User: What shape does this take?
Amino acid sequence: MKIIKEFIRFTNIDKEGKQLFIILCIASLLYCAMESVLMNMVYQIGNTTVYFVALYGIVLCSGYGFMMLLFQFLQSKRGIKEKVVMKPYILPYVKVQLILSSILIGGSYGLYALHTYWLYSILNAVLFLCILFYFPIQIFSMFSIYDGHRNSIRIIYHAFYKMMKHYRSVFYSYICLLLLGYGCSCVLMGLSGIGYIINPAILATDFLLRSNPFMLFFELFATMFGSTSLLIASCIALVYGIFMHILLVFYFMLMGCIYDEDVHV
Assistant: This one.
């Protein structure tokens, strides 16, 4: 308990935690609305090329908003009050995000295209690792961009190095979020009757599009009064989304501490 209190004080969560939580929730709800509208339009068109163009567009736009949020977290953690001018960060961000998202999208497409079993098995395993590494590397890359780094390859390499250097802190915290998300998803899918096959090709694109704590609630909201089980599932999804956003406030601050070398575990 003493360590948690010290962490809250050190990262200024006690002063700015509520504001960051509200901003994070609003951003998540706006993203859910944007993703639902755009992807419904894309599915109606039914063109693969349009789908992948839309996928890149959504990832770039949402990732830019995510970067702005991470900048806010890092500034709050460091006690910086200056307003961030985003223009110098746009080009480095676009290059880094295109590289990171292309790895998942390219791997997803590759799994669909491959017909050789041993190549499929290898790419399957590699894609799972890429999905696992994507979020921590993305966060560290955004922090690195904030600190003025401009070379996309060096940014990603630095983020990967930071992740491996502090792999215990990074993965123990990240695995807790993943397990909570997976457990809640299983419960909600059971209540709502939604089936899902864990396939890396599907998981990679879903991770880019749907890894938002409010996404399940947003999808269930329209049908929540259709039955008792759907109503229960919607309420659980809402509570899960709120609780996960509280955890994300702490998680992003922890990642900021790891990036600034304040954590030595």
Summary: The first helix runs from residue 2 to 10. The two ends are 17 Å apart (CA to CA). The chain has a mean pLDDT of 87. DSSP finds ten helices and no strands in the chain.
